[in-house]
Amino acid sequence: MAKLIVEKVLNNNVLIAEHPSYGEVVLIGKGIGFNRKHGDFIETDSVEKLFVLKNEKEQQNYIKLLPFIDNEFLEVIIASIDLIKQRTSSMLNEHIHVALTDHLMFALTRASQGMEMKNPFLVETKALYRHEYEVAKEVVELIKVKTGINFPIGEIGFIALHIHSAITNKDISDVNQHSQLVNKLVDMVEEQLEIEIDKEGIDYMRLIRHLRFAIDRVVNGEKVEEPEKISSLLKDEYPICYNLSWKLIKVMQQSLKLKVFDAEAVYLTMHLQRLQKKFK
């Protein structure tokens, strides 16, 4: 059984240790630093219940946050990330410790002062990331039970995006940028087709899923095969939807600064045509 050696206790819940495989690590866990001192051993089997920060940059950024967090808040944040780990049963990207701790630290301060930050992506987040949203709801409930602080509903959406980022290894800034892009594209569709899509309905969910998957394909450089001769047929049959799909693609290209394959226009046109027909 390998052992970790305590190098420095930062507070009750965080310490620096020497790990047999990873070298110097930051260990995070409720009460882990309590009554420990330099040179103490920690059995690796007890580390299962802890978080180990191996990445040096993440370690430094996390340590920088510590002086600004009240110990009670830090404990509830650690418990929240533990809950996310249990509910998602996946390897979370280490960055969640810095990103979500930083976010929740300010969110707790805002909520305790009765301030609310508007979440422009709430509806889209709820529709696209159902599982992450449900887990985020549990996190908000846990925070309420532990601190008595009630988060506004928008916070569920923000936390869900952090969970999605940690599960998929996507940078939170990319997740936010893609959310903004989808919002912009939906606005263009509504404006050009002169329709208003029910944000709680299946049409909205289908549209944003289509746009989101298209964005993912573009980012991953996945080529979509174009059905033979269908492009000119759609151009003649559904000129409004065909032109709109190209406008959307141009906005995608500008935003992502990547090439979008022509075949995306074909599939988008068919999707928009189905949507327009439904509203007519």
Give a quick set of tags describing it:
280 residues, alpha+beta, 5-stranded antiparallel β-sheet, elongated
TL;DR?
The protein has helices spanning 56-65, 71-88, 96-112, 122-128, 130-147, 153-168, 172-193, 202-220, 230-237, 239-256, 263-279, and strands at residues 3-11, 14-19, 23-28, 41-43, 51-53.
Could you explain how this protein is built, in words?
Helix 1 runs parallel beside helix 3. It contains eleven helices and five strands. It is elongated and about 75 Å long. It is an alpha+beta fold and 280 residues long. It has a five-stranded antiparallel β-sheet. A hairpin with a 3-residue loop joins strand 2 and strand 3 (23-28). The mean pLDDT is 92.
Mean pLDDT, as a whole number? 92
Largest sheet: 5 strands, antiparallel
In what order do the strands lie side by side in the largest sheet? Answer: 4-1-2-3-5
**Rounded to an integer, what's the Rg over CA atoms?**
23 Å
Low-confidence stretches: none
Q: What share of the residues does DSSP label as strand, in percent? A: 5-15%
Count of helical stretches: 11
Q: Note the gap between the termini.
A: 69 Å
Which descriptor suits the 3D outline?
Answer: elongated
What is the N-to-C order of secondary-structure elements (H for helix, E for strand)?
EEEEEHHHHHHHHHHH
Give the helix proportion (percent range): 55-70%
